[in-house]
Amino acid sequence: MNKVVSIAAITGIILVLAFAVNLTPADNQATAEITPFPSREKVISVTGTATASVEPDLLIMTFGVETQEKTAKQALESNSQLMNGVVEAIKSTGISEDELSTTRLNIFPVYDSYRDKITGKYTQELIGYRVTNTITVETNNLDSAADVIDGAVEAGVNRVDSVYFTLSPAKELDVKDQLIAKAVLNAKAKAENALSPLNHKIIGVKAISLSEFGMPPPMPMFRADFAIAEAALAPTPVFSSEQDVTTTASVIFLIGSN
Fold first, then answer.
1. How far apart are CA 238 and CA 164, in angstroms?
2. pLDDT (tens digit per residue) in 206-247
3. Helix H segments across the chain?
4. N or C, where is the chain less crowded by C-beta within 10 Å?
5. DSSP assignment, residue 39?
């Protein structure tokens, strides 16, 4: 029994060796080429852009009250009294508490520098404390800007840091989504224009990459610092302007000859 198995095994090995020896050069080459050819696809990479000018739907205003007293406690109490009046004046224009927020509250010492008559050296002397309290108003009522500014200044605001119009996050996102298709079509048009003199055409898409630039930083529409808060003699003119929103799409097109 063992001899039969051994003879069969030897016969199989001989047959395999004989098959390998009898392979033609063409067969050997076909056997070796088991991996696909490297990709020979032709591509063109283009970036398309789409921009839209949109009416703003959000008004943001930042006000400040600065007070200075001999002690930090006195300065804070004086500032709080003024700011409470400012908040009530702003609310009276139709602004709700949800649209108000404290942006910054600072308390810092104030020094006066003088030159000592005897030594000739400059010396700093603590003369008091200054408190700065800044609040921000964010509202969808764009027509309230003049009333809010005038009411706040009349109530005691001695700093109007900025007033500007912008887009709410929800509206900005919606506009960007609407611009995606236009950005892709712009990229396609650019690719077709580039391929036209080369006798090539678009035959497919390999990849798309979206890049959202959004809006440029908002520019303040109004800024002023007041030494003494006074009642406004006339309504403060404040005007809104359209906001530009931009979306880009980088597309890699597959191309072929016409």
1. 9
2. 999 987 665 555 545 444 443 333 434 456 666 677 889 999
3. 2-21, 25-32, 72-91, 145-155, 169-195
4. N
5. P
